[in-house]
Amino acid sequence: MEAGSALLSIKVSFSNVANVLLDWNDEGDDYCSWRGVVCDNIGVGLSVVSLNLSNLKLGGEISPALGDLRNIQSIDLQGNGLTGQIPDEIGNCGSLVHLDLSDNLLHGDIPFSISKLKQLEFLNVKNNQLGGPIPSTLTQIPNLKTL
User: Fold this and answer.
1) Contact 17, 24 (CB under 8 A)
2) Residue 19 falls within a domain, yes or no?
3) Best CA proximity match to 20, nearest among 83, 79, 99
4) Is 19 exposed, middle or buried (CB count within 10 Å of its CB: 0-12, 13-18, 19+)?
5) What does residue 15 show for φ and ψ, rounded to 5 degrees?
């Protein structure tokens, strides 16, 4: 799935987006100009490298389509009202360095797939309703500095 489609799938899984993600639409291919989206030239073209939708009072869930943003380096969804679980597909974001999902209403376990994120340096999931053990495999992330 190309990045624009992935971003629109992510938008659909959120609620309270009407006035917040107004510019997120499929009328143009210029998703790099959308609110909270940062792109950079990687390899053969533009890739989404950062998604910052923090403190926008978004509800709904985090879409598995997040995993389609293969070159993303930073995801910041903190300070919203997101529910549901952290999608396993997050493990497909192999370039991810910064992941902040704090201050939401997420539940379930921290997915083991996060352990596949070998570039990850910062993981913040505090102030959610997560349960279960912290995956011991997180110790296999070589650069993780903040948990």
Assistant:
1) yes
2) yes
3) 79
4) exposed
5) -120, 170
Q: How many domains does the structure of the chain reveal?
A: 1
Residue 146: inside a domain: no
Q: Write out the chain's pLDDT in tens, 147 residues.
A: 588 888 888 888 988 777 788 888 876 668 888 889 998 886 667 788 999 999 999 999 999 999 999 899 999 999 999 999 999 999 999 999 999 999 999 999 989 898 899 999 999 999 999 888 888 888 888 888 877
Alpha-helix residue ranges (DSSP H) falling in 15-99: none
Residues in the chain: 147
Q: Is residue 132 part of a domain?
A: yes
| Structural domain span for residue 128 | 3-140
